[in-house]
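Proteins fold. Shown next:

***
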Amino acid sequence: MRILVRRAKAFGGTVEVPGDKSISHRALLFAALGETPLHLAHLAPGADVRSTAACLAALGLEAAPGAEGTFVVRGRGALLPPARTLDCGNSGTTLRLLSGLVAGAGVKATLDGDASLRRRPMARVLEPLRAMGAAARGTHSQTDECAPLVFSGGALKGRTHVLRVASAQVKSCLVLAGLQAAGVTEIREPQPSRDHTERMLRAFGAPLHVAADGTVVVERLSRPLGLPARLRIPGDPSSAAFFVGGALLVPGGSVACPGVDVNPTRTGFLRVLARMGAEVHVEPGPEEAGDPVGTLHVRPGGRLVGTDILPGEVPSLLDEVPLLAVVASQAQGVTRLSGAAELRVKESDRLRQVCCGLKAMGVDVEETDDGFLLQGPARLTGAHLDAAGDHRIAMAFAVAGLVADGETVIDGAEWADISYPGFFVELATMSSGAVQP
């Protein structure tokens, strides 16, 4: 799929973004630890979450559309050995979190995915799971273990894990394993990562707490997880970020995004934008799924300035780096990103793709081992770009095209469906037709 983007004369409106992808994955997976039906409203519609639902169905759970637009998932007290390989598609979250669930349950299963997912490093989950007693192996590459992952059972025992890199996916994998392991499991990270897992499980009554130093402590479930009858998934801040960016860059732009998750571990991009001089306000709303929720309001503001994005901030804004780089290209001065080497093992090498795309559009940017150094503001020129199989690259450069001279053409735009089906239609509406899906 190819899209065409021209300079936007206006940008504004109200947009309700899809349900949060991270919370949607977790709600589905945690339902496997309960025995009552969980009706999920506003579930993320993208391909990644569909992969999680399909894998759970193959493990014996009821997972199907329900009434009034909900999705119903119901555990049966135990997972069943799947009759086929569990296909995680393009979803690293599905593969990593499902590994913890399957290993804890002791079922025999093979987890696989598409060509992109098979290149992503998995030793970071396999090694700690093996240390807990799981019989698990991956396919060895030159540098790591990758999918397909084979689990052959094994009774797990809790232990202390000290993660070298903060990762919500690895942490959540080990929490899922720990809830099914004998004894106590502890997970320590060098910096805080997304805490949706901790918040949601505590709301469901799981034996989990977070110590004063941030260590996550998990004990084995003594009874099925206590699930609510209905749960509404809050809007995805990573999806809302692209509309925030469009409103900040297009002169006179404004936008409102209601019902968005504003968990502090997910909104580092808002804090960075505030430092840059952006006018983004959060109107608080009621909690959902254990997380704070609000409406994001962006109004025309002052001049943007460059800033340093430090390693300690990266876990809270990792998915928004491509969008932040586009915004920084229009800010006065230097923007530096460091501590983001994790982006090299996403759906693409995001650091490389962001820097190459910005250079093609006329930005003075230098790629570093773990980030970039960017000088703004740049007068952007439309370019012919490839999404490189990465939804966030496709979406970020569509926003860049809204303030570029000439035409920006993006090949592989269909990858946006991974997280946001219909994104380009919505972006076209907000930009008064500057985007042609």
Summary: The longest strand covers residues 280-288. Residues 21-219 form a domain with the UDP-n-acetylglucosamine1-carboxyvinyl-transferase; Chain fold (CATH 3.65.10.10). The first helix runs from residue 21 to 31.
